[in-house]
Write a structure and sequence with these properties.
The complex is a heterodimer. Chain A folds into 2 domains: 8-239, P-loop containing nucleotide triphosphate hydrolases (Rossmann fold); 248-360, OB fold (Dihydrolipoamide Acetyltransferase, E2P). Chain A has 8 helices and 21 strands. Chain A has helices at residues 53-61, 103-113, 118-131, 147-159, 177-194, 205-211, 229-234, 239-244, and strands spanning 8-18, 26-37, 42-46, 68-73, 76-77, 88-91, 165-169, 197-202, 214-219, 222-227, 249-251, 255-260, 263-268, 271-277, 287-291, 296-298, 304-313, 318-324, 327-333, 346-351, 357-360. In chain A, helix 2 crosses helix 3 and helix 2 (103-113) packs parallel to helix 4. The longest helix of chain A has 18 residues, at 177-194. Chain A starts with 7 loop residues before the first strand and ends in a 7-residue tail after the last strand. In chain B, helix 4 runs antiparallel to helix 11, helix 8 runs parallel beside helix 14 (252-297) and helix 11 packs antiparallel against helix 14. Chain B has helices spanning 12-43, 47-51, 65-71, 74-106, 113-125, 130-139, 147-150, 157-170, 173-181, 186-194, 199-215, 218-223, 232-244, 252-297. Classes of the chains: A alpha+beta, B mainly alpha. The A-B interface holds A 61, 63, 82-84, 88-90, 92-94, 96, 98-100, 109-110, 113-114, 157, 161 and B 172, 174-175, 177-184, 188, 193, 196-197.
Chain lengths: 367, 299
């Protein structure tokens, strides 16, 4: 790739659609979204169906016009220019390969439309097919190659025109679980090798965590939180984010004794403790404590008494549902040292208090 | 019948069902195929044997007299030429107009698409009628030209709906968007991507329209006055009339012979007019079925 990587900047972007049930109302697919993607970075938009992530991606591509706001690719404001003038590449969920063209012709198509010379086209296509490790399939048609190979062709087609930005619209969702895991590593490797700024849409949190420099969690057209996967997992801002990334128990504290400076003193499951608190928590407002299942440790010296309600074996870990002070709480035991425990056993557990986090209560359905 | 299906032995009920299936399908096949076969053997049999109902399985006293009589008319070849011309030009216009209109109407971003579709549907349910159509054709200066047979029916509403549905179902938006990102415009996408992927619907349209033009008879009867422009069907009709009705002949025996010859010619004409399509049909049959299915799934 010869192009120098440029960033993407989205400023106060709004996209509304007319509401179905109320003719006067509007639905916000993007609600004053502001975000930036640094040059060469891979940023993932993650959220449940209907949260507006694909709408946002399609506005960057130019397939949808924003209601208001600005989109910059590099220093150029592109929100009102057509898709083919934005210099973006896109990998679609269905790959969108032309079924009547060979792999070579699919990849070369964009270059032909740019009226590039035949020799140069041949050289560039050869190079990109080698990069994607599909040079042996150049003369095959899309229906003659596997799903993983089709995906590589789609990626080759998207990057051959040397776009400034590469957009991914759930490109792995059509693959089986094993291939998906393999291909996401491959995609990441190729993206890093090419060094192209990328915006990636998925609803799969493990995919987002595995490949992204930065993850943006969206809900109802708004950005809930942006940060690295580790930041979002360890320090979610609210209950929705905590529940969307990874598994979490949400337990109402008996009381919040103090809340200031990102710390809270709470009474939880009958014990007093100091834990981290989200900046969105307010004094006097209802809160919950996030307890990740792996942060509950079974130990004979544990401070909390618990009873095993149910137990399931998942290979890498054993999952228990525990009754602790009348609350049903999920626990994951990755050590598997307590494999002999049975349903109904009385045990003792400890909580990793450094990992607990006070979050504002979210009672919307999407949590 | 005793052979197990996929390695699973058939129950008695399954076997009975299979037997019934074969019997019903054989009857259905005979009901469809025998009339066609009868026309073929009757066209080469002695007309007296046909008249007396003795021709059932094999031709009796085979003769090509009927065909010889048919091919002795020079107008037959003019009719063939005209029909071929009307079919080729008419089908080309029909297919181009139907495919392009169907594709345009399949695109969600076409402004006023629903209103246009309603207008199109209206013409399918209500038409002006024969006399207004005739007056329109006359005032447009199409009377007694081949365009009177081609232009008024240039787009069939039903075929248009079939095409629109095909494009909606088989050309995903993502394909267009991918081409658009590469810099391909609407026309380029239609020509380079949509058309190569639409060979089946094009074949279906060619078949539908070509059969319709080939068999067209009524419009030619109304809109054409000079016999040199008559299509094959009209020419054959005239040959049949000439060979069956002759008021000047008073002799009963001659009249009977003429009647029998008329029957022989009738069977021969069915073969002459249908043979080209019968030959083509097996090759296009799968597209024909596909076309009917497209219409059946979604309108």
């Amino acid at each position: 790739m010869n192009n120098e990587a440029v960033g993407v900047e989205i400023r106060d972007l709004v996209k509304t659609f007319p509401a179905f049930d109320d003719k006067k109302g509007e639905v916000y697919a993007a609600n004053h979204v502001t975000l930036s993607v640094q040059p060469g970075e891979l940023v993932t938009l993650l959220g449940p169906s209907g949260c507006g992530k694909t709408t946002l991606l399609r506005m960057v591509a130019g397939f949808l016009m924003p209601t208001s706001g600005e989109i910059f690719i590099g220093n150029r404001e592109v929100s009102k220019i057509p898709p083919n003038k934005r210099n973006v590449g896109m990998m679609f969920q269905s790959y969108a390969l032309f079924p009547h063209m060979t792999v070579y012709d699919n990849v070369a198509y964009g270059l032909k439309l740019k009226h590039m010379g035949k020799t140069e086209i041949r050289e560039r296509v050869k190079g990109i097919l080698q990069l994607m490790q599909i040079e042996n399939y150049a003369s095959r048609f899309p229906n003659e190659i596997s799903g993983g190979q089709q995906q590589r062709v789609a990626l080759a087609r998207a990057v051959i025109t040397e776009p400034n930005v590469l957009l991914f619209d759930e490109p792995l969702s059509n693959l089986d679980a094993k291939l998906r895991e393999y291909m996401r590593e491959e995609l990441r490797k190729i993206q890093k090798r090419v060094g192209i700024t990328s915006l990636y849409v998925t609803h799969d949190q493990s995919e987002a965590m595995a490949i992204s420099d930065k993850v943006i969690i969206m809900r109802s057209g708004k950005i809930e939180q942006a940060g690295t996967a580790m930041e979002i997992y360890a320090r979610p801002k609210n209950q929705f984010v905590a529940g969307f990334i990874g598994k979490a128990n949400f337990v109402r504290p008996d009381s919040v004794l103090s809340l200031s400076g990102g710390k809270a003193e709470v009474e939880l499951l009958g014990r007093r403790m100091t834990i981290d608190a989200s900046e969105e928590c307010r004094n006097g407002e209802p809160c919950v404590v996030m307890i990740r299942p792996e942060d509950i440790k079974i130990s004979p010296e544990g401070k909390f008494k618990a009873r095993i309600i149910s137990k399931a074996y998942f290979g890498q870990y054993i999952r228990h549902f525990l009754d602790i002070a009348g609350q049903e709480i999920e626990q994951m035991d990755f050590t598997q040292s307590n494999a002999a425990l049975q349903v109904g056993d009385e045990i003792a557990v400890n909580l990793v208090t450094d990992s607990l986090r006070l979050l504002p209560l979210d009672d919307t359905e999407e949590t | 019948m005793k052979r197990p299906r996929n390695g699973i032995a058939l129950s008695r009920a399954d076997k009975a069902f299979d037997v019934l299936d074969y019997i019903l399908l054989t009857i259905a096949f005979l009901l469809v195929a025998y009339p066609l076969y009868f026309v073929v053997i009757a066209s080469v049999s002695d007309p007296i044997a046909v008249y007396e109902g003795r021709v059932i399985i094999w031709p009796i006293k085979p003769t090509l007299e009927g065909y010889a009589r048919i091919f002795s008319y020079e107008s037959l070849f003019i009719g063939y030429k005209n029909t071929l011309l009307y079919t080729l030009i008419g089908t080309a216009i029909n297919v181009v107009m139907t495919i392009t209109a169907g594709y345009a109407l399949s695109r969600k971003e076409l402004v006023g698409r629903n209103v246009m579709m309603m207008g199109v549907m209206f013409t399918m349910i209500f038409s002006g009628g024969m006399i207004p159509n005739y007056l329109l054709v006359r005032s447009l200066g199409l009377y007694n030209t081949m365009w009177a047979l081609i232009l008024p029916g240039a787009v069939s509403t039903w075929n248009l709906i079939v095409c629109r549905t095909f494009f909606q179902q088989t050309i995903p938006d993502e394909l267009r968007e991918a081409a658009e990102l590469d810099g391909c415009g609407d026309t380029g996408f239609f020509l380079r991507v949509v058309l190569p992927l639409s060979s089946s619907i094009i074949a279906v349209m060619v078949l539908f329209y070509a059969v319709s033009h080939w068999n067209s008879y009524y419009n030619a009867l109304i809109y054409l006055s000079s016999t040199s422009k008559y299509p094959l069907q009209l020419v054959l009709r005239n040959i049949l009339i000439v060979n069956t009705l002759d008021d000047m002949v008073n002799d009963v025996a001659t009249q009977a012979a003429q009647q029998r010859m008329g029957d022989l010619i009738k069977y021969g004409m069915i073969i002459v007019s249908s043979l080209p399509l019968l030959v083509l049909y097996p090759f296009l049959q799968k597209y024909f079925v596909q076309g009917v299915m497209i219409g059946a799934i979604k309108g």
